[in-house]
Design goal:
With 141 residues, this protein is mainly alpha-helical. The protein has one domain (2-140). 87% of the residues lie in helices and 4% in strands. The chain contains 3 helices and 2 strands. The chain has helices at residues 2-27, 32-103, 116-140, and strands spanning 105-107, 113-115. A two-stranded antiparallel ribbon has the order 1-2. The protein starts with a helix and ends with a helix. The mean pLDDT is 78.
């Protein structure tokens, strides 16, 4: 913070000094011996003032772009965390289907026993549908 204040003060002083010397150079118009020296000094100061002004006018848009880029990066990270959590849920569902396949038979909610192949197929279709939804939600954002 302190460094920025010092830089701003120096920049303002450089620009003011350049303007004062430019005003004095106008007063020297017509004096061929002194106007040449004033012109040389003003050439240097105008260049330095241009750099100072360009720096401060370029800094504000650059900081705005940086803030926008940071917001986008934060949103992308949040989306990545959501997709990762959803992928973990789907991976757990796949583990459950694999466990059912290992037991050889699956019990439905009603308590009746179905063949392992039929129940496994339904479970796999559900996992597939969840993966499709996850894929679509990942592309939208």
């Amino acid at each position: 913070m302190y460094k920025d204040n010092v830089n701003a003060i120096l920049a303002v002083l450089i620009v003011i000094f350049t303007l004062i010397l430019a005003g004095k150079a106008f007063l020297l118009a017509g004096d061929e011996t002194k106007i040449g020296d004033a012109k040389d000094i003003l050439q240097i100061l105008v260049g330095i003032s241009g750099v100072v002004i360009g720096y401060y006018f370029g800094r504000v848009p650059a900081e705005a772009h940086a803030a926008k880029a940071q917001e986008q990066a934060d949103a992308a990270n949040a989306q990545s965390e959501v997709v990762s959590a959803q992928a973990q849920v789907i991976a757990d569902q796949v583990d459950q289907v694999m466990d059912k396949m290992a037991t050889g038979a699956a019990v439905t909610r009603g308590g009746d026993v179905r063949s392992a192949g039929s129940q496994t197929m339904e479970d796999l279709q559900k996992v597939r549908d969840d993966l499709k939804k996850l894929s679509i939600s990942g592309r939208r954002r």
